[in-house]
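Margin note from the TA: students keep mixing up input and output lines. Inputs are the sequences; the output is the structure of the whole complex. Example:
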Amino acid sequence: MSTTTITVDDLTFRYPGSDDPVLYNANVEIDSGEFTAIVGGNGSGKTTLCKAFNGLIPHFFNGTFEGTVSVDDTVTTESDVSALSRTVGYVFQDFENQLVQPIVLDDVAFAPKNHGLEDYQARAMDALEAVGLADAADRFIWELSGGQQHLVALAGVLAMDPAFIIVDEPAAQLDPDNARKTYEQLRGIQRDTDVGVIVIEHHTEFIGDYCDRLVMVADGDVAWTEPVDVGLNRVEALLDADIHPPQVTQIARELPDGTLPNGRYPVTVEQAVDAFPAAASDARHRAKPDGSGSAECLIRVEDVTHGYPTLREGHKTVLDAFDLELYSGNRVALVGANGAGKSTLLRLLTGLESPDEGTVTVLGDDTNDTLPEELAEETVYIHQNPEEMFVEETVRDDVAYYLESREAPDADERVDDVIEFLDLEDIADRDGRLLSIGQQRRASLAIGLATDPTVVLLDEPTGSLDLQSRREVTRMLSRSVSRTETVVVATHDLQLVAEWADRVIVLGPDGILADETPQAVFQQPAILAQANLRPPQVVELSDRLGIDPPSLTTAALVERLSTGAVR
Amino acid sequence: MGYLDALRNITIADIKVDLMRTAYDNDDALLNAFDPRVVIIWSAIFVVVPWFFYEPEPLFAMLVASLLLAYLSQTSVYLLALLIWGSLSNIGFIVILSSVVYWWQGGSGGLQSAVVDNSVALLPFTMKLTVISVVSLAAFSAMSPKKLAKGLLSLGVPRPFTFAIAYGYRMMPVLLEEYHDLVNSLRLRNKAPEHSGLLRWRYYLYLLKLAIKAFYPMTFNVAKRSRVTVEAMETKGFSHSLGNEASRELRLGDLEIRPRDVTFMLVSLLFVVVVAVYL
């Protein structure tokens, strides 16, 4: 198999209007025979580096460009983006905006058609088959789920038969299950064809499971390039860049004898099972029953049936004769596959939608008889896509919006308080819509917190987060429980569930599959699989090591392994 | 209050689906079966034809025919209703204004007969406008975006423009969704008027204000999206295709005028002749 090489030689690049270069004398060589992951902190220049590979830099962004980037013998400055993109394909982080035609097949065939390739139809079908979407060729783009749209964007790149595919943060915009599916596809493509895959990635667990080589970008330079097993062991360097090593690697560091025979820490669950001591079974810590108990019932959903009119399938019922009670003090995680009704349920609780049948009572008010504006006095809903929460020109105005519309006397003070609590001082006077997704998420939390709610409803708060923002969400969740009565989080993120929730409601296609403590839910792999969920590494590892009940956090597992070591 | 909110919810969801159906579900639409160039030229002709008639009868026949065509082309009822309401209210306003002026100036026969006279006088004009609107609506909503773009491209419209049509269709559902979300987001942070007044006019005024306020953030978000889109278009070789003859041929290769296109055109013209001669 002949491979192609991208060579970056002393690359320096400065965006117009900026004083400091994003990249300074960067050097790297990437071979298409490998699956390469590029990591680095926010603003380290990793996206800029990747955009230099297909000529978007400097052809599209005019800045100061020094050094050379070449793909085999082609020097990027002497070619153009269109031509380079035939060799180096790019899947953008917000891939939805990369899809420009209404129908799937047309979009995939768009580039080959632009280049006047007569076999465009065949190329497009082959590409769709390669990503497993041949059935969807005639569907409209908007009918597809986010995960499928990502695969269409990938197919659009594959249709040009490139030597490299660059995928910018696939796990950031996709839920974990779809991200894993995308990685499976990418690895398959990389193995079966001679296409090199380059991903920009924060989530080291995916890197450990799927990638061959790790490129670390720090301060505008390529700091080092290592095989993944070695690279993920450079724990200090990773943590410095705000990148968390895989859970198994973190556990191994804490254990007295957690290393592999070659002296390295394991980076996958598979490796960890061999490296770690087996633990004795421990029955003293049994799961307690779900959080319902004696507390006051705040939210009651009774016999609710609700759905939507759809274009192709007529009226689609999402919730059918659905019952649920939520109590004060609950930390509820709502999990389930896409389309199981998580968001629908949250919107019903806000009163933005009234149930087709049945009643929803929130803090004693029947949502059928109450305006959403009135329910919002005590309930706050934080949208899955934080962009939809920004309606003013600065973050501060957005945080103040609710208080000002209600003429709250201490509005300024409360706004300052919230902004300080979430460390938003730096971005408080910027336009929320222009922030990075992580910053947007934190700002949207501030908008919610400022209302001082009794009930907090969060839709996918960790859906697309870098690690810093993820910590903020967890911190806000912990703090908000001291102020509020109940928090309901719709999520795919089982690590969040494990660390935070005390009641997990698993929604399936026919209603509630399980309503239990996280521990109890994690002990039922069949239910998780049914809901397209995958337990966090620490739970998987506990299971493989025979620890029952499973540990939910790395700290808990370290403790179990160090006290119960019997090897 | 409950029934009102329930009604509103259903309407928004239904209107969304109806608009989507108009834009996307063209498979069974009559006008979509023909060659796009023929349909475009045909509609250009029928935008002009009504102006050659002055009597209400032939115009009425054309109106019925155009409505039938709109029905067969699965045009959105909401759009049709909006359009007809628009022309009726517009004409109604002129009728009332002119009648009041006439009566005030001391015209004979009083206000009532002035309204009748003016309505009759304006009837042909109203029908002409309605026929034109219904015909163009039927033609352009029945053709799939791909066909429409292809038809225009082959008639010499520049490619960036025809691309914009296909892209517009791609973005429409995203816009609808985004707009709905923004309005909802505003509702959850605003305070509804405490006293909604007669027929809840204050409440509806308040909703109207929110509906207007949501436009700016929507435009902003769309502009932001298009930044990535432009980058992506470059990687997909769009600018490369602009001057590329092979690419243009691939795009237009399967356009073909078949007997049924000719029949359609002839039958339409025959209809006009019949109307002109017999009515």
